[in-house]
Amino acid sequence: MSALASSNQEGEPQGPAFSPLYRQIKALILRSLQGGEWKPGEAIPSEVELAARFKVSQGTVRKAIDELATENLLVRRQGKGTFVATHAEEDIQYRFLRLVSDAGRRPAPTQREWLDCRRLRSPAEIARGLGLGPGDPVIQARRLLRFDGRPVVLEDIWLPGTLFKGLTAERLAQYRGALYAFFEAEFGVRMIRAEEKVRAVAAGALEAPLLGVSEGMPLLSVERRALTYGDKPVELRRGLYDTSAHHYRNELS
Amino acid sequence: MSALASSNQEGEPQGPAFSPLYRQIKALILRSLQGGEWKPGEAIPSEVELAARFKVSQGTVRKAIDELATENLLVRRQGKGTFVATHAEEDIQYRFLRLVSDAGRRPAPTQREWLDCRRLRSPAEIARGLGLGPGDPVIQARRLLRFDGRPVVLEDIWLPGTLFKGLTAERLAQYRGALYAFFEAEFGVRMIRAEEKVRAVAAGALEAPLLGVSEGMPLLSVERRALTYGDKPVELRRGLYDTSAHHYRNELS
DNA sequence: GAGTGGTCTAGACCACACT
DNA sequence: GTGTGGTCTAGACCACTCC
Questions:
Q1: What is the pLDDT of residue B45?
Q2: Hey, what domains does chain A have and what are their CATH numbers?
Q3: Chain B: residue nearest A253 by CA?
């Protein structure tokens, strides 16, 4: 028997149904992750250790970890241990970037150019998307991604100012590697999942020259809302993709 | 002990690594699904029954079914049984349609209009995508989807002629419900998963009037390749979406 | 109450990585 | 060899559905 909340004895009539033990364990592990007890890239305690700590069987811990692994919060490595997922991993970088060259290669941007980075008071729409009050400080940055020298992606990024204190254009320009790895290492902000809204739009007079296309040219507009633990939004992004030699790839199942 | 291929005793030096029992069970269940032993919507035998049939423990069958369930091939229903997934289910219809109204509603098309349906010899590009020889018979159909009366999606669909014998414009027009449910019920073809390539394009002179937009207007081009068992391609689709009041929604994780 | 999937346990053994 | 995750088993009990 574990020391955890046992089944559903009594309780309010409209109780939240029934939560199996392994989900309670999962919630505990999640809290440790969120609280930073184990840092991204580090190993968490072994299954037997956790089983002992929580006073449950190894199988129950396993099932909790299984779910966290399929949610990409943990990574299991046979023979080595279970590790906190990180955007710094070579093969996980640009995990959220769905852009692929028409030849099928999944390109890492060959060049990133920061065009702007400023702090300002949040416009109402941005504040709403980030769950902030209107007028709260936000950081806005703009960058251009090139593939094989050609500009393909123009992105505007909004971040909550309080979470990303000290973020400057210099530090952005300096960092090599994926942006989310940077956020993780420098600000302790982990992107867990994201939602995107994709549309076709016409290139505006301001953006067109940056992407090297003519005004009115169709571009892919990709609005992203990235979330961290507890589904808290921590980034808004609006990308304009030139899809004349690339496309947005998606798997349905 | 089971009667199945036991671990990796000897074998060719470059054996395919190691296949756990539950994966072999999974493969067997998959074969039965593919062979039509259980039809879409029907219940498969209970876990204990399958365990007896395959001479393994219930836990092993469970793990096999677990994987098939996460791949959306089976659906578990506590207390009732495990069922073969079907596109005919109310809440699974339009499972692959990522289009959402900007208000956030996930619309079932209020009207579907078939504009064309013909048999022809496959163009080279289509044949390649469907894994056919050039000149093999294919069916091409075109339809328009309306939401709240407004045309939003114009789709061209290509199907292998041999798999969809007897498909006519009349039968298409007659059927109510999702297209994939129709394919499943009438031709025994089950769509398992799909890949999509999304781009922004300009409305052409021919398509623009059908969608009620002006020529040159940016549209979302969605190319889909749908696969059945064994990753065999059985449908190509090219949709043009008017994204002025709708968008393509995607979840990243 | 009978049957189904869902949870939890305890223990044995296998595959893999490090040392 | 030791420790880690991965597989497999057998059995008990729980939650849900239907009769």
A1: 98
A2: 21-84 (1.10.10.10), 90-248 (3.40.1410.10)
A3: B193
